[in-house]
Specification:
Layout (H helix, E strand, L loop, with lengths): L4 E8 L4 E9 L4 H12 L7 E5 L2 E2 L4 H7 L8 E8 L22 E6 L5 E6 L3 E6 L4 E7 L5 E6 L6 E5 L4 E4 L6 E5 L11
Parallel strand pairs: 1-5
Antiparallel strand pairs: 1-2, 3-4, 3-5, 6-7, 7-8, 8-9, 10-11, 11-12, 12-13
């Protein structure tokens, strides 16, 4: 298995090829792919990336996540779609007034309700949580997305919450009950912004 190689082609989320097709060891890790794509892009400062093959994320290695788990053949040319991850330069925090714990993965989006009494957060754990800011506790957890929740938007009257995801859907929620009101499909790419 250590000698198995795959033919791979890097590609942006918009379908643009990056570099030539490469023969890579099947056990290449996401960290090694990050080093490789930073070399191709000739970035002055290395940036973090996530990698997807047929919408399956490479978390550990191509062998583990794509060939073994997703059943992809080593005979096929693998198109590796790369997506930059959030990249922040952080200054030391001198004071934090509050923390809201509950998501099991990174919080990727947050939005205050129009009246300021609630906060909605979207996470890599595929859920949307609605928080009561007066008690700093979660009111409801909205479940339905199949991939990371990238953006959140409230209706002007605060009665509907919309969430956009990497599963290419926008879902509408009742913020009082957490019940899904509807799902809007049809996008071919991730939903990255709502207003």
């Amino acid at each position: 298995m250590a000698d198995t190689t795959v033919l791979a082609q890097f590609q942006t989320a918009d379908g643009e090829k990056t570099g030539p097709p490469l023969s890579l060891p099947a056990n290449v890790t996401a960290e090694q792919l990050t080093v490789l794509i930073n070399k191709f892009l000739e970035t002055s400062e290395p940036r973090p990336y996530s990698f997807y093959i047929d919408e399956h994320e490479v978390v550990r290695s191509i062998q583990t996540d794509i060939i073994d788990a997703a059943g992809k053949s080593t005979e096929d040319t693998l198109v590796i779609v790369y997506q930059p991850q959030a990249f922040f330069k952080v200054r030391a925090v001198t004071r934090c007034s509050s923390s809201l714990t509950g998501h099991t993965e990174a919080v990727l989006s947050a939005s205050f309700s129009p009246d300021g009494s609630q906060l909605a957060s979207g996470s890599g754990d595929t859920t949307v949580r609605i928080w009561d800011l007066s008690t700093e506790t979660p009111r409801v957890t909205c479940k339905g997305h199949r991939n990371w929740v990238l953006c959140i938007g409230w209706s002007p009257n605060g009665r509907v919450l919309a969430s956009g995801s990497m599963d290419n859907t926008v879902r509408l929620w009742d913020p009082e009950t957490g019940r899904e009101l509807g799902m809007l499909g049809g996008h071919r790419k991730w939903i990255t912004a709502l207003s």
